[in-house]
Specification:
Layout lengths: L1 E4 L14 H13 L4 E5 L12 H17 L5 E5 L3 H10 L3 E4 L8 H8 L3 E5 L17 H18 L7 E4 L8 H9 L1 H5 L6 E2 L5 H7 L7 H13 L4 E2 L4 H16 L15
Parallel strand pairs: 1-2, 2-3, 3-4, 4-5, 5-6, 7-8
Helix pairs in contact: 1-2, 2-3, 9-10
Bound molecules: 6-hydroxymethylpterin-diphosphate.
The site of 6-hydroxymethylpterin-diphosphate has 21 residues, from strand 1 and strand 5.
């Protein structure tokens, strides 16, 4: 899942693609680099971000989604929003996936819209709200708490008419989590995978990678890849990233390695290639 932020203030690429032409070109590039989904967002959810009005968010994303849909890139278009009106306009413009970081808590009617339109969706865990979420987050057991939340939100989505096959789940790395919480979730992501739906991982360029590596926000691709490969090995299947080319190479190698274990029997023939 490649990130297309049509915002002036996103934490890692704010202002880089807030012009629609630049955003569409960026989406086309990410599709060429191997993204299967493009996640288009018009409101930053970084800690302390200011909320955006519906009108501004619509202005930012609708033309970009129409433009990308018109290019027929063979990728799924996702709208990253918590607002009903924005999701509706995005689905009209060609999106078929709704990524809601509030898991339909901000606007419960969003679930009905996703059901009516036969869209896919991502339900993400967040403790609190973006403005305050990083001030002293606490859990009994972060993995158990996030898992229980996702199970409850999945139940609500199904009751609203969304088939389970259309739901993906995201532990919300960095959304009301300390460094230790993020690492524990990644280490035990198989427990979230056990809920039976594709798990989405959004670690890309986030500050906990900066804390571990000392790198600035645009230099965190290597740390990001480490998290994604480990999560892939533990069963996660969707990786929301800014750096698609590097991540898809890493995942291709990880996938091939896990799919082709060392021959168990000494009689198995092997072929050597370079
Ligand atoms: N992270 C961000 C935004 N949306 N959606 C999901 N499902 N999972 C995530 O981890 C996630 C997300 C934050 O990243 P970014 O969009 O690059 O920054 P900003 O919110 O500042 O625009």
């Amino acid at each position: 899942m490649g990130v297309v932020n049509v915002t002036p203030d996103s934490f890692s690429d704010g202002g880089a693609f807030d012009d629609p032409i630049a955003a569409i070109a960026h989406g086309r590039r990410l599709a060429g680099e191997g993204a299967h989904i493009l996640d288009i967002g018009g409101e930053s959810t970084r800690p302390g971000a200011d909320p955006v009005t519906v009108e501004d968010e619509l202005d930012r994303v609708v033309g970009v989604i129409e433009g990308l849909a018109g290019l027929a890139l063979g990728v799924q278009l996702s709208i990253d929003t918590m607002k009903l009106a924005v999701a509706e306009a995005a689905l009209d413009a060609g999106a078929s996936y709704v990524n809601d970081v509030t898991a339909f808590r901000h606007d419960p009617d969003l679930a009905g819209l996703v059901a009516d339109r036969d869209a896919d969706c991502c339900l993400m865990h967040m403790l609190g709200e973006p403005r305050t979420m990083q001030s002293d987050p606490r859990y009994d057991d972060v993995v158990d708490d996030v898992k229980a939340f996702l199970e409850e939100r999945m139940g609500a989505a199904v009751r609203a008419g969304i088939p389970e096959e259309r739901i993906q789940l995201d532990p919300g790395i960095g959304f009301g989590k300390t460094l230790a919480h993020n690492l524990e979730l990644l280490r035990r992501i198989d427990e979230i995978v056990a809920l039976g739906r594709p798990v989405v991982i959004g670690t890309s360029r986030k500050s906990f990678i900066g804390r571990l590596t000392g790198r600035d926000v645009t230099e965190r691709v290597h740390g990001t890849i480490a998290t994604n490969v480990l999560a892939f090995e533990r069963g996660a299947r969707v990786f929301r990233v800014h750096d698609v080319a590097a991540t898809s190479d890493a995942l291709a190698v990880a996938n091939a390695t896990l799919a082709h274990p060392w021959p168990a029997s000494p009689t198995t023939s092997t072929t050597t290639t370079t």
